[in-house]
Amino acid sequence: MKKLSARRRHPLAAVVVLLLALATTGMVYAAFVPTRDAKADETAQSLTIEEGKKLYAVGCASCHGTGGQGSSDGPSLVGVGAAAVDFQVGTGRMPAATSQGAQVPKKKKVYTQAEIDQLAAFIASLGAGPSVPTEAQYGPEGADIAKGGDLFRNNCAQCHNFTGKGGALTHGKYAPDLESVDPKHIYEAMQTGPQNMPSFPDTTLSEQNKKDIIAYLNAVNGDETVNPGGLELGGLGPVSEGLFAWIFGLGALIAVAVWVAARTAKAKKS
Fold first, then answer.
1. Is 64 annotated as a binding residue?
2. Is 63 annotated as a binding residue?
3. What is the pTM of this model?
4. Among 190, 158, 160, 173, which residue's Cα sits nearest to residue 104?
5. In which band, very low, low, confident or very high, does the pLDDT at 229 lie, cut at 50, 70 and 90?
6. Residues of the signal sequence (predicted)?
């Protein structure tokens, strides 16, 4: 009887065995599943890049070179990043028409967003560059509209006007109107500096600064915009306002002067 009782299992033995089995299963899962997921993501990214390469060969290589190295007809795309592709192709500026003016205008886009993502992935694989921003980066959450107005007037208004209405530059070039432009594309333009625009990397304008500027533009160009100063005259700034003052203000003064002179002449005759 003593021998049988000595060999009897402890009541907690089954629990300990179960816990050991669960721990072993967890370690095996942790060791293999993330690797499998990482490989799946890597495969999907490779397929995206490959599809982008095919699109690039048909629609872009004739100007930018087969490897994105550039040519006499188009600049190098190595290192421009996915953000530049998403902006240029997403706004229809690329592919460019055969004959262009002083700069490439915005037009209806040729590719779907899925195809743009594939092109962007391929160009990003050629060299590190700015990535496509997320909604958290350019969305209104946490933005300071007043600070954005200060930043816009100090860094952007010289070309785009005080409320983003655009303006003329030299030799037929121009700064485009920013009304109704996708906030993502405004962010990407600040990141990449397309055409005549300088780039504003995070070292110049932080991510929060860009968010604030976009919030300001949305506020002054929104559907519910209120102009406390009265008629905005197109929002074109002091030139249009000064012209309005000269034409209507000076014109009113001339009319008053003529009226006073006429009344004075009548008074003298009587």
1. yes
2. yes
3. 0.73
4. 173
5. low
6. 1-30
